[in-house]
Amino acid sequence: MTSDENADGNAEPDRLTPAAEPMFELPPELAIDTAVARRVMVGFIRNQLHQAGFERALVGLSGGIDSALVVYLVSEALGAEKLLCVLMPYRTSSAESVDHARLVTDELGCASEIVDISPMVDGYFGRDGELGAGGAAAREASQLRRGNVMARQRMSVLYDRSVLWGGLVVGTGNKTESLIGYTTLFGDSACAFNPIGDLYKSQVRQVAAAMGVPEEIIRKAPSADLWPGQTDEAEAGFTYPELDRLLFWMIDKRRTDEELVAMGFPVVAIERVKRLVAASEFKRQVPPVAKLGPRTTGVDYLYPRRRPGSARP
Amino acid sequence: MQPLRIALAQLAPRLGGLEENLARHRALLAEARTGGARLVVFPELGLTGYQLQDLAAEVAMRHDDPRLLRLAAETGGLSAVVSFVEEADDHRLFISAALLEDGDVQFVHRKLFLPTYGLFDERRFFAAGDKLRATGSNLGVRLGIGVCEDFWHMAVAETLALDGAEVLINVSSSPGRDLAAIHEVGLGTAASWRTLMRTYAQLTTCFVVFCNRVGTDETITFWGGSEVIGPSGDAIFTAPLFDEGLHFVDIELGDVRRQRIGLPLLRDERPELHLRELRRILAERTDMALDQASEAPAGRESPDRGEAPDRWAAQDDEAPPDRWAALGGQAAPDGRTGRDPNAIPNRWTVSGGNDAGR
Fold this sequence. Notes:
The complex is a heterodimer.
Chain A lengths: L1 H8 L24 H19 L3 E5 L4 H14 L4 E5 L7 H14 L2 E4 L3 H8 L10 H4 L3 H23 L1 E3 L5 H6 L20 H11 L3 H5 L12 H5 L3 H13 L4 H6 L4 H13 L34
Parallel strand pairs in A: 1-2, 1-4, 2-3
Chain B lengths: L3 E7 L7 H17 L4 E3 L14 H4 L6 H7 L6 E9 L5 E9 L2 E7 L11 H4 L17 E5 L6 H9 L4 E6 L15 H17 L2 E6 L1 E4 L2 E4 L3 E3 L5 E4 L6 E7 L2 H9 L8 H16 L61 H4 L7
Parallel strand pairs in B: 1-2, 2-3, 6-7, 7-8
Antiparallel strand pairs in B: 1-13, 3-4, 4-5, 8-11, 9-10, 11-12
């Protein structure tokens, strides 16, 4: 608790050490009690595994703040020895990403392994003029298509490794990227459960600071690392604190467009974000099933995911 | 007067694990007895877990289910409030809280208000109870039992207090949410509940016993923080957030009298005024003349299909098993010859006053 609160101090304009640059900007309305959040997320992780009959978990650790925080949370929930971190770089991934992932696994002492996804991705798109399995249609693929295939290869590796490790895949997507749809369907969003999916990026940073995630990971510009030099904020055209604030007032606090404008949010930002949210609704839901029979899963057959009998024997 | 020792069983039930939860209740009852408790309170749906959805029908029990009676059999010398999915004779499912004493089910309260908004979907799976009344107990004091959302409606605590309750008991499965640093203990839900429970205690001059579960069902984490609040509105005990535990709290029942002599709010309540204005408001809402506005005018009600078919319902030849009239030296209305005034669906229309024996 005490360490939480000390670490939280970094999130606020630094009164104690005015010389130090704050690690990140935290809009005041998004500030949470990190001890409570941590407690809820850790309990959630334990419960999800317990009810499913598992004791172990694995996480795709990118070197970014989201997966780093999840690794800290899982480690606290289960103990580091129950956790496997899988690093899955592509040949153009930043070397810094692997270094940062190593900082985390060294600090916590959890198992880790590297699976280089380059041959898998190149095997489809081709390389150096050679056609891959995807043929000519894949050779000239856009960065978006390549990024999506990379994310899905990582998912595929993670789920295969989950069998070997005997654990469940823990999700690492945050609320901001989920709401604007900045995720790959069945790629980075695929998981057994997600402890941080209701935290905005700014709140991920706040909890990460409180839990002692290495500072260089918290400070660096968030990136999907799908191509060199990519950053989320450049791609989205927003900074995370701006975007988080807007989403918070728009969605959590149900403010109308007129009210948002009166609060000082630019009309173009409001319109753009609303469009992103509406256009990505499909990514946040289970695919619809045509209703035909008397009882249809997800419609009028509604059971908890986990109940007596649902755990792995 | 000897203090009354209450045990708050702030537990994390297993979702859908009826047998496991029954065993846990039995163990905690034994532990509470060893600890000297006379009243043991378990949280809402402590026997089944909360987020049941279609599982509700599979874990439902009648109030005379042998499994529930087996649990009741272990209450010798104890009063226990336990909560479960109750299936009525007509197969409606209720979220119920039962008072177990002397090896039997003495009283059942069926949750009146089923939240179906935000993260809640209770009305899809459950029927709402129709009766609100305090009950006598072996503790020498009348109890007013409500389930979670029941206490988000002001009339509930007031009605129970007017019906003679001196200890209000709320059993809850309150999902923790609205995390924000600005809230007391960082949790919007906890801040709201604390405000409400203290306010009820203060305004009704009753003890308030709040037992909230912990643990996680699916996405929802329950926050605990069970409390006992004195009739002045001051918290006597607050359990930790999120942790399981059996907590013992001693209360002086004499505090109710002291408070009510010094601060006679309950004496000064004006239920007849409230009733009159409520009838006017209802009449205006429905564009009806005042005398048509009451839903079941006295003397005109037909056999009520909506009335619970359980043994506490209006069966003219059977006295209600709760000893609601035993206090205050007045005789209970004779269930064999007279109608239990409590069983008249709209007792307010009879006299406007509380003529139940208390």
